[in-house]
Amino acid sequence: MGLLYFVWGSTYLAIRVTVETLHPLAAAGVRFILAGLLTLGALAALGRLGPRPTRAELRGSALAGVWLLFGGVGIVTITEAHAPSNLTAVLASTTSLWVVGYRALAGERIGRGSIAGAALGVVGVIVLLSPGGSGAETPWLIGAVVASLFWSTGSFYGRRLTQPADPFVGAVVQMLTAGVVMTVVGVALDGIGALDLTAASGRSLLALLYLVVAGGIAFSAYIWALQHLPISTVVSHQYVNPAVAVLLGAVILDESLGLSAVIGAALVIAAVFATVRSESSPSPICEELVPET
Fold first, then answer.
1. Measured between alpha carbons, how far is residue 82 from residues 21, 124, 244, 260 in Å?
2. Cys-Cys crosslink for 242: which of 27, 89, 188, 263, Cβ 3.0 to 4.6 Å?
3. What is the pTM of this model?
4. What does the alpha-carbon distance between residue 22 and residue 252 come to, in Å, rounded to a whole number?
């Protein structure tokens, strides 16, 4: 779990450095295409490809990939081109809070602890998005909230889609599909120049490489954790990751937080912690919070 805590928390920092000189959507597209191809190659080398997915499974994984990765990670990447990584990470970590809302809308019985956690999280988000909480970046930080909504929606309804029995195979389809969509949209919006790497700085390229390689390794560790650790332990990354991102943003990128932002971030992280702990016993939310990629 330590690997997941650090690597996934550090991806927000890496994204921020990547978009310093690279096009957000195009870079994210290249990231997932390469990660998907590397994972596919690893599966082939290990003889883990298994039976060929059916059309329904390919369609389900492709849809989940677009919703989770394009809608989730893609929007986060765009947000970080205009806003600091620390606040983006905190706001993007609210997935579990929105899932509680979806469960309520679906007519499921929600525990008091989950309701209290979600309410506390909403207060934290309001504080962070207030003028005193995040300043001039507020309009862009709304993107992090939208990304979280995409991820929570995809997580909640994605399990109802037909997908390959092997999660690694499904992940490959999701990454490749989302990667292609991101790249195409990036080029459609800003022309073929979005793929130009000649103007990219060395540190942006290194950050992109880190996202491809380290992100892929972390994903493998995540799959292993799902199979060997309690789900309540696995989903704990949701409140650890933003803390790691805030720390790395401060140390490496010199990102600071004002008093209001500190209070808002603390409220959100505490809310996510409370919600995950409240749902740590076997219940639907623990399964819904597990991302497919």
1. 12, 21, 20, 20
2. 89
3. 0.86
4. 19
